[in-house]
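call fold(seq) -> tokens
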Amino acid sequence: MKNSDKWNLDKLYKGFDEEFKRDAEGLKAAIEDLTSYSKIEFNSSENSVAKIETYLKKKIDLEYYTKTVKYVSLVLSADNENSEAIKYRAQLMQANSSLSVPETLFEKFLKDLNISDLVANSQFLKEHEFILNFSKESANHRLSEAEELVLSKIKMNAADSWSNLWRELTSTLDVELELDGEVKNIPLSLVRSLAKDSDSNVRKKALEAELAAYPKIEKSAAAALSAIKGEAITISNLRGYESVLNMTLKHSRMDSETLEALLSAMKEFLPMFQKYFTHKAKLLGHTNGKLPFYDLHAPVGNAEDMIFTREAAEKFIIENFMNFSEDLGSFVKNAFANEWVDWYPRKGKVGGAFCSNITSIKESRVLMNFNNSFDDVATLAHEFGHAYHGDSFKDSTPLNSTYSMPIAEVASTFCETIIFNAAFENATEDQKISILETNLLGSSQIIVDIYSRFLFEDEIIRRREKGALLTEELKELMIDVQKQTYGEALVDYHPYMWLNKTHYYNANLNYYNFPYAYGLLFAKGLYGIYKKEGASFTQKYKELLTATGKNDLYEVGKIVGINVHDIEFWREGLREIEQEIEAFTKLGL
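ret:
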């Protein structure tokens, strides 16, 4: 029997039933218990080891109840108008906001303690040494208990609400589009997926319709973005960080030296990508060598042979993951069999794709807007890289299962690389240009477009410090940063790219752009090691993924002999892409 096109969430809950309601109350009770314990026990340093052990074990127990939060989030991602989920989201956010109190008390309790002494007297604490040191350092940026509680409750009704507004605006926006002689109202996510359509006329009409629809929501989206970044600035200042970027780097377990090396290398290689765009323009028949934006994502080559049904996509991914390691292949085969994927676009469903790792049930769920292209197959592999990363923690405690944004993109990009290389190796000559171009398009988005997004966010944060962000200002700035990164290779630019990217509107994350570039180039470094070491690398790879839960990025790199401070490491990954571009420019149709 064919599996459903929608994901199965029964492992979490079968609906907003009595079990869900009981666990929602359980979450509230567990947080209250943790809070009460912290207020009583963290007033003195006596019996510090025992107190900390008890606190951490209570936090681990609390993880079971957080599956209520995951369930609500997943339901709303697939159906943004689900009234029950909307109701419970508010309740659960209210409960979660209270966690700031015990976390504040715990971090301040650690502030004057010697972590080395603590872990020397407890194997359990030794296993959690990294998170203890991270929490102790975080105490330097904590406000008072009362201030933290007020801040968390305000946040729930401030940036979080603006984020939810943006999600509702974009997931329910109907776009008027004429196709096959008939005017239809189509969800934004579906219209945007037409950017990859094989028909240039469809691509052009879809982009024009998309741009024409945004004015309906642009002012509301600009207000949301302004509020979210304004809150980030306020929190950064209150906590004593140098800047929002500095705060992000701390949370990312990354230092400024690494970011500077990464961004500098990316900027150096922008002309290389512009050469790729110019050649793609010529292949698509644009004799001036400039690419219209509607053709940026256009398929090139023998696209007809690169169409994948859902069943073909599953088979292709399983077989080629098996070739890397039986562990990875079997993991994904099980995921497909147990309906972890929500496949197709529909009204009320968010656009794009993501993977949600659910620690409490040791599983993941993947959201797609699958459109049968090879690029979609690569995206599916990417998301299962995230899922496999989550699976690497199945024998770890939840406290050692949290990794930072930049390293989050490594396993996903590594899995994409497996799929691209397998497809290229087995392709006909006619297909190779399509595969190579799809790969280069992905790389260009992660280097060129991501760099434009970094420049954009860095600038809007600076401007937001002086006042609210206005719609026209955002559109002008977006075009300006695209000109800086894409250069003269494009005919036109996309003034609303700030509106359709979910990363700008996540109330809990800022600068969710450079992590993608980090993931791409770090993964290329790992894949280079795999090519040298072969099958023996697979176990080292799994160990590296597990280690990401309790190390900073510099130490993670050292595990496999990578120095992330060295700009030459990042250049090496970019030179690999440069070789692909050189090969691409020698191909013709």
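The first strand starts at residue 174 and ends at 179.
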